[in-house]
Design goal:
pyruvate-formate lyase- activating enzyme, OB fold (Dihydrolipoamide Acetyltransferase, E2P), Rossmann fold, five-stranded mixed beta barrel
């Protein structure tokens, strides 16, 4: 125990999606009233871990082994989706003394107290606190603040454990989300990013996603609003029109594709076709011609042949994604896809991933060149490699060639003078807004 200090030290490690990142910030706030939340050596570590892919699980296991090796006297608590997967016998994990599923995150102070008292094993199921009661007051070390407005998923994609470990879709009421956003903006966060497990299923009792965006844009002091990942069926004409009428609504849409082949999409049970996906891109471009796009793609899903993969490459090239997250299909016990026939060899998956990465790189390079000579508003986030950097409204990573007098949180107009496949670079033309 921490000699000379009556408050135990607690460290937090996060693996996984933006919802996990938000929930870690929430747990940090809850723990800070009773414990010293630290970044370094601690008496107890809370590991908030993901189970969606085998890679995510492996990273969490490696982290816990490292903690055991470097801090043998510290206790380790595992919470989140990975702990829920263990409870449902979907996977096994060693290294944690006490485990609690997602529902325990809202009572993390109790979990830590029980772990420090010597309790081991899996905590029993707990009742989830309403999303209206989940909130954060700060997003430590960031300029953009995540705001979780939705949790769970009421679909059952055949490759995914989310429904099993997160439960059905739940939505934060608009009034609660607005209150939280106002607090974050007043605390100095100029950009809010909506986060959810399936944002397309956002359906609170007091409105819908379009109404949430419309209401959020009335928050005094908010300079930017951005959507996190949203499935195609969540892109409605009403939502797009709301985004088209206010420059603070960032015209970047991360819309998971997963596959460009309709047969594969049916096997995945994604609930849309490539034709519908294309229609959502067209809808956005009709109202917001300069919109940029991101997507997730799964390579090597069972039964994916060369022709199916070629169709995925075709739609990737057609849309021209600014960001493409590429995943090798990961077989997950407990999912329907794990028992499908015709699993793709790992060597073939790796080959296709490399091909798609090269294609995505070439597309980004071409897209970025179109910005040469243009003037873009950039929200400065941090100093990296000796240069200030941030993002445009269209979520393009941008560096300043000169940044005298600039600080994180400033919004500046940058004339783009250089474009690579990874980022833009330019000089400040004008300071749009300073804190």
């Amino acid at each position: 125990m921490n000699a000379g200090n009556t408050r135990p030290r607690v460290g937090l490690l996060t693996f996984g999606c933006r919802v996990n990142q938000y929930e870690t910030q929430m747990m940090r706030g809850l723990l800070a009233t009773t414990f010293d939340v630290v970044d370094g050596k601690a008496d107890l570590y809370v590991v908030n871990a993901c189970t969606v892919t085998s890679l995510a699980e492996r990273k969490a296991r490696q982290a816990m082994r490292r903690l055991r090796r470097e801090h043998p006297g510290a206790k380790i608590v595992l919470v989140g989706c990975l702990a829920d997967a263990v409870a449902q016998s979907l996977t096994r994990v060693e290294g944690a003394g006490l485990l609690g599923g997602n529902a325990w995150k809202g009572r993390i102070d109790e979990v830590v107290t029980r772990a420090l008292a010597g309790e081991h094993g899996m905590l029993p199921d707990a009742e989830q606190i309403p999303l209206a009661q989940e909130r954060i007051k700060e997003y430590r070390g960031r300029v953009r603040a995540l705001l979780k407005v939705q949790d769970g998923c009421s679909l059952s994609c055949t490759f995914c454990r989310t429904t099993q470990v997160r439960g059905p879709s739940r939505s934060k009421p608009i009034a609660a989300a607005l209150s939280e956003a106002c607090s974050l903006v007043q605390s100095g966060y100029p950009e809010i990013v909506f986060a959810g497990i399936n944002l397309a299923q956002y359906a609170p009792p007091d409105g819908d996603l379009a109404e949430l965006v419309q209401s959020m844009l009335k928050v005094d002091g908010l300079r930017r609003l951005r959507l996190g990942s949203i499935n195609p069926y969540g892109i409605t004409e009403r939502l797009v029109k709301v985004f088209s009428t206010d420059h603070r609504a960032c015209p970047y849409f991360h819309i998971p594709l997963q596959s460009g082949d309709d047969v594969v999409l049916r096997r995945m049970e994604r609930g849309y076709t490539t034709s519908f996906y294309r229609s959502r891109i067209s809808l956005i471009r009709r109202f917001i011609p300069k919109a940029t796009f991101g997507a997730d793609v799964i390579v090597g899903f069972p039964g994916e042949g060369e022709a199916a993969f070629a169709r995925t490459c075709e739609i990737v090239e057609e849309v021209g994604f600014a960001n493409l997250h590429i995943f090798r299909y990961s077989r997950r016990d407990g999912t329907f896809a794990a028992n499908l026939p015709n699993h793709v060899q790992e060597s073939k998956k790796r080959e296709r991933v490399e091909h798609l990465r090269e294609l995505a790189r070439a597309i980004r390079c071409d897209l970025h060149r179109r910005f040469l000579g243009s003037e873009e508003e950039v929200l400065i986030e941090e100093r990296r490699d000796g240069k200030w950097r941030g993002y445009t409204h269209g979520y393009i990573d941008t560096y300043l060639l000169k940044g005298d007098g600039v600080a994180a949180g400033d919004e500046v107009t940058v004339k783009i003078e250089k474009a690579t496949d990874c980022y833009l670079e330019g000089v400040i033309k004008d300071r749009t807004d300073t804190r």
